Amino acid sequence: MKRLFAFACLVTTSWFAVQAQDWKPAGDKILTTWGEQLDPKNPHPEYPRPQLERKDNWKSLNGLWKYTVVDKSVSEKPTSWEGDILVPFAIESALSGVGKEVGKENALWYSRTISVPKTLRKGRTLLHFGAVDWQCDVYVNGQHIGQHEGGFDPFSFDITAVLKKGADQEIVVRVWDPTSDGPQPRGKQINNPHGIWYTPVTGIWQTVWLESVPETYILATRQTPDVDASTLTVSANVDGAQAGDQLVLEAYDGTQKIADASVAIGSEAKLKVSNPTLWSPDNPKLYDLVVKIVRKGKVVDEAKSYFAMRKISMEKGSDGIQRMYLNDEFVFHYGPLDQGWWPDGLHTAPSDEALKFDVIKTKEMGFNMIRKHIKVEPARWYRHCDSVGILVWQDMPSGDLGGNIWDMQPGKISNGVHDKDRTPESEAIYRKEWKEIMDALHNFPSIVVWVPFNEAWGQFKTKEITEWTMDYDPSRLVNSASGGNFAFIGHILDIHNYPGAAMPDPNLFGDKFVLALGEFGGLGLPVEGHTWQEKDNWGYQSFKSKEELKERYQELVNDLDALIKRGLSAGVYTQTTDVEVETNGLMTYDRKVIKIPEAELKKMHEVLYQHVVR
């Protein structure tokens, strides 16, 4: 039997190696260095879930799968396949090796026969998807095991009952995605890309993986620091728990245990963290956490995690203006609008190294914050922000646009509908995915602000959604509508202004809201040989040389500095990189050219962090 298993693995590996040799990026668009060097036999091999690690019993399923595109009315598994697609890259991307659009009238099907070793068949076997856009049906060995709707949240299925004897198992995935023809959250995707709207992303775009877990196992944890009380509150969602089972927690600073606690399953545990080192961009201190399920003195499941002690709050200074405080000190938040798009992978970075590159370069440029713009990243991106020390404002991806007006001026009254009248189906889709996103990202300490809406795009029931968000996670601030229709709810009043720096009037709004400039700048500079297309690129204000760009950017920083003195708490510069026809990035789309050197940007930005508010 062992020989047969070894032979099957050898055949599968040999087939994969041959197919990988035939793979190449599709199309003629620019590539990143990481995309040029991509190994199709092992894309994104890193463990994908840094906040709940069981590294001993898992297997990446990234790599070449079979694919075909058929009419969406076809419900049966296809009998033939068009070719190979490289997972986890969306079919429209160059790195998928396909580079074709699907459209709302069609469905995308995937198929792969995988080998499941005995080590992954102990207890329960889970099939995980980091993200699939949008509606996903999964079949294992011909059995439909479930459907998931949502393009930005992770999900999994227990496939134990449908596994066959022997190593080889067939996985088939069907995906349907209407992109901008549907009401679902989609972010910047559109069926007809132009301007600030980009190429559709359909199908699997984050890691697919198998995991073996015990019969009783930890599904997820929820970890919330309380700096004032010097505690970390932890709860766990456990599957298969029995009466008397205990949730046991151990916190470590390096190898030294600093706290522990034990409670019944279903209860909250509080770890006392005495004299903690507080997390900040200047000192991104992380503590390790071990989470166990113990039954009658025996550990039945164990996972590793981490946490940080940090506090984000809104406090009024002596001038009567509300400000954002980090660990009880005023810290001006300044960072780029980060779309998270790639010329070769679209939503998916070509590698984990590339994913981390953007975070590191942002820090080296002297920014302390990133606004993750209407997109959700893989969990490892947030881990990089936690480790490097970057504050994150997390947007909810927008969808269901149109049908309401956009008033950029806070407090303005005009005829028309400000909150869109979305259908019950559309509302339910938004609410479900926003909750799933908040749950999936809750444990990452770098995230300090939630942003439910942007520029009135699909904005609806603003007061209700904002209040729900504030109640669901009181440990963070909520920016109800970045640059959108302000409903006098939430913690932050956020305007957008291009290209110059501006702010809400502190005399009108400063006593009740943190004042923010959620988007500005957009200074454009196309760099020959590094653009998505040769002509018709644009920025909000365009320049012909790096020197002109740098001079104008310095003017913006000077203006921003003056506004901080008047009560501004945050600024978001557009943007981290060029994206498709937009050339207003600090880096080119392929990340090969940085338009203003990092050290020069950092020196410019130092003045923004020297303001003291009492």
TrEMBL record:
Residues in the signal sequence: 1-20
One Gene Ontology biological process: carbohydrate metabolic process
Keywords: Glycosidase, Hydrolase, Signal
Protein name: Beta-galactosidase
UniProt cross-references to InterPro entries, sorted A to Z: Beta-gal/glucu_dom_sf, Galactose-bd-like_sf, GH, GH2_Domain-Containing, Glyco_hydro_2_cat, Glyco_hydro_2_N, Ig-like_fold, Ig-like_GH2
GO MF, one annotated term: hydrolase activity, hydrolyzing O-glycosyl compounds
Family stated for the protein in its record: Belongs to the glycosyl hydrolase 2 family.
Species: Sphingobacterium haloxyli
Residues in Glycosyl hydrolases family 2 sugar binding domain copies: 106-177
Chain ranges of the Glycoside hydrolase family 2 catalytic domain: 354-484
SUPFAM superfamilies: (Trans)glycosidases (SSF51445), beta-Galactosidase/glucuronidase domain (SSF49303), Galactose-binding domain-like (SSF49785)
Residues covered by the Glycoside hydrolase family 2 immunoglobulin-like beta-sandwich domain: 221-310
Pfam families given in the database record: Glyco_hydro_2 (PF00703), Glyco_hydro_2_C (PF02836), Glyco_hydro_2_N (PF02837)
